[in-house]
Amino acid sequence: MEKCKSVRISDNEGRSVFSNNITLSREHDIAYLRINKLIGLNPSFSKLPPETGDSIYAVGAPIDGLSLTKGRLFSTFQDNRGDWLEITVPADHGNSGGPVFSESGLVGMVISKDFTNSKIYAYTIKLIEADYGVTKAAATASNPELKEVKEKSYSPLLTQLFSASIAFIFGLLAGVALSARRARRRSKKRIRIEI
């Protein structure tokens, strides 16, 4: 992304938007793209952090195309960089930058794998939001033209938050579809007893 001038973002329906407003976070290795028009479904961000043992889903492209994997939240922890999730989902190269979501919505972004013990780590949404604020403020201070763009934008902050991976957008769509499918399954599994 460092030398990228423009990015095209597409959804499953073939709709596309372009962004040439790219802000890089060197601290957390994330590229934030500002778009003026939302495509696909409105992202659903979890209002509460997931709890240990909750079902967790990750989307990425580790082999050939996008894949959805399921696991559990193993633990949460904090270091000098922010809040992290340790998750037990099958992930590999190509999952980095992909979304992590629970039943209630988006909770983080896959960032790394420890190959010595196969643990998968993800940034939390809280960490990403904080990093976005710091990164955008630094970019605006060094380039005053960005301030005008920010003030004219009516898009909420969370809809502007995208990872360097285009898989992030597809993951949100997959999460919504998965939640809807689970809801349909639950309603079909109800047993009716007639007397």
Provide the descriptors you would attach to this structure in a database record.
two-stranded antiparallel ribbon; six-stranded antiparallel barrel; Thrombin, subunit H; 195 residues; alpha+beta
Question: How would you characterize this protein structure?
Answer:
The chain has a 6-stranded antiparallel β-barrel with strand order 5-6-7-10-9-8. It has a two-stranded antiparallel ribbon with strand order 1-2. By secondary structure, it is of the alpha+beta class. The chain starts with 6 loop residues before the first strand and ends in a 7-residue tail after the last helix. The chain has a single domain, classed as Beta Barrel (Thrombin, subunit H).
Secondary-structure map with pairings?
Elements: E1 7-10, E2 16-19, E3 21-25, E4 30-34, E5 55-60, E6 67-79, E7 82-87, E8 99-102, E9 105-114, E10 119-124, H1 125-142, H2 145-152, H3 167-188
Antiparallel strand pairs: 1-2, 3-4, 5-6, 5-8, 6-7, 7-10, 8-9, 9-10
What is the CATH class name? Mainly Beta
Poorly predicted regions: 146-167
- The succession of helices and strands, N to C, reads EEEEEEEEEEHHH
Query: Per CATH, what is the topology?
Result: Thrombin, subunit H
CATH H-level homologous superfamily name: Trypsin-like serine proteases
Structural class: alpha+beta
Oligomeric state of this protein: single chain
User: Strands of the biggest beta sheet: in what spatial order?
Assistant: 5-6-7-10-9-8
Annotation, overall tally of beta strands: 10
Helix content: 10-25%
**Whole-angstrom Rg:** 18 Å
Major sheet: size, sense and barrel closure? 6 strands, antiparallel, barrel
CATH hierarchy: architecture = Beta Barrel
| Individual helix count | 3
Mean pLDDT: 76
Number of domains: 1
Q: Could you tell me how far the N terminus lies from the C terminus, measured between alpha carbons in angstroms?
A: 65 Å
The share of residues in extended strands comes to 25-35%
- Shape descriptor: globular
